[in-house]
Amino acid sequence: MNRTLLEKPFEPAQIKQRQGRNGWLDYVEGHAVIQRLNEAFEGAWSFEVVSHEVRQDEVLVLGRLTAEGVGKMQFGASQVTREKASGLPVSLGDDLKAAGTDALKKCASLLGVGLHLYAEKPIRQGAPEKAARPPVKPVANSAPNGGGVTPRQLDAIGKVARAKGLEGTAVESMSLRVFNRKPEALSQAEAARLIKELSNLKRNAA
Question: 191: buried, middle or exposed (CB in 10 Å: 19+, 13-18, 0-12)?
Fold first, then answer.
């Protein structure tokens, strides 16, 4: 089993965002997970729907992913899409397929696929603090617009992030999504924008 390839972080361009119950969530699309499984197992893997259930507002699927004699099971879910006028389901088949894809991605995460997305979550109040990361020096001439980020700006980014209950990996992920560069490679203008965006975030409650 090629764990190095399975656990390889996805590129920033492959990471999407959607609104969840407790804020914005990072995710990758089903085809990216399937491609990763094909690469790691050379196509020698299988996925089956063990059972499914249709409820009033959502559908549930229990799936099993099997590769190299190892099986992983997880539930997937999807909301029932309804017509606005009549309130009738648009297509339960499509809803079940979406729930199946959700189950597949969760099974794959048990093998390490996309696991880094689950790790980059805001630290909730009261959670044990991680060891402080060493200060990062600005990268010379790495920013395309104006002068590079200053040490004072990097310090401000760190302070605002901590005040919002965010860990360094979450800030780095946000910077990569917005500017396609890590905080230490931003321009002064971009760093100021990142500080503003972080300041506008609501702190995650426990």
Answer: buried
